[in-house]
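Notes to self after the call with IL:
- keep both proteins in one doc
- input above output, always
- annotate only the second one for now

Protein 1:
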Amino acid sequence: MKPTTITLALTEKIAQWIVSGQYAPEEQLPGENEIARTLESSRTSVRAALQNLAGKGMIIIQPKKRSTVAVIEQWNWLDSDVMRWMSGVKSSDRIITHLIATRLMFEPNIAALAALNATGRDLAEMEVGYEMMRDGRDNGCREQFNQGDIYFHRAIIMAAHNPFLVGLGDLLIATMELSFSNTLEDDVSLSGPALQEHWDVLEAIRLRNAKTARQRMREIVLASMRKVLPHDPDFVSLIH
């Protein structure tokens, strides 16, 4: 393995320790030598991995002290790796609230732009995503449903034909994936209402009704919120 590949692999391992809660915010990580022994690697590679995580705001490195896990507010949530790592774990209600707020800021307005700018090819791509979701529901396959969901939302981002939003596409999708992993029903057969909501967005975009597309997408995001935080007082402020 190339040194850079080793460093990336170590970065992934240590990041998983953190996002899984094995080491909590403000808790010290093991020393470099101990990590090197545990992960069967060199101290130099471990140090490089820790520097990677420090650059993402996940840990604090201090001279002659063990690295400390940073509080989550200091993490770089615009970093796609951070979002990817978090998408694999069950997040706190606080994180989910922030995610839903972020989605509320972007997704409804992206859907409105898509209604104004979508081409026939864009609509066909949205239909592909919708059909993947429908087939996933019919086949009882959650993974297929999730893939279709992501495909659908990515197609809407592309249909906005805004270069700045397209540039943010991967980040927005990572945000959606993290939100989806914490809000979707375990039983994919219960996803009928979600399918209808996505179809309504698609139809609004097809009819170039920006106002309806914005509203329908907002309803999708809020429906996700209701599934995980039905009694959260902050939820009311997000609706209004």
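Protein 2 (the one to annotate):
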Amino acid sequence: SPPTPHHRAQGSILYYARGIAEAQAGGPVLDAIVTVPAFFGQRQRQALADAATLAGLNLMGLINTHTAAALQYGIERDFVNRSQTIVLYDMGSGSTEVALVKYNTYTVKEAGKPKVYNQLEVRDVDWDESLGANLLDMALARHFAAEFSAKAKLEVDVTALPKAMAKMRRQVRRTKEMLSANSAAPCTVEELYDGIDFQSTITRDAFEVLAKDFFSRATAPLKRIMERNGLQPGDIDAFELLGGGS
């Protein structure tokens, strides 16, 4: 069947990624292993495989995102004479995955001599496929939009205006990032609506109240993993944050 617009969009993204890889490698990139979220079903995985073909890639396989991250973590470390249990927490713009991974080593004889290799086991994985950093952006954007409407005494619902909300969301991302290192942060948007500028400030405490439900959802996958495996915080050797939303 002919490619759908969705397939073409995915193919364009992979083609762009291929270009970045080729620029870094200094030559053509034809073979690829593509990561996928753990919650992707067979149809979604097949759609991604079709998109890789559209991008001119020879797809050698699909691998779960958390497994790829676990491999990278293990490659860079030595687990001789010790085991390690870690949590990989990956929040993107639209979804969140949490994985529990255990590392240790095994020994084999090669040419009569012992050789030690790292090995890993993904013990558990959990996710919230609709929880991502975009929800934080929207919560902030709606908060400031309501404040703008009240200050400007507007009868129109600013949240229903795509152009105004696009401007607001661009700014609130910066506001959100500033709050990670500051107790308060400004939000300024020129000509938000009908030529009217918007300027305000929000404290980190106010933001945390605003995002209370978000933070409850953000910890839920981790809590489920800890409970299922009978673990306490002290049982975890490392907690690795992945993804742009983390």
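Annotation: The mean pLDDT is 93. Strands lie at 31-36, 58-64, 84-91, 96-110, 113-128, 184-193, 196-203, 238-242.
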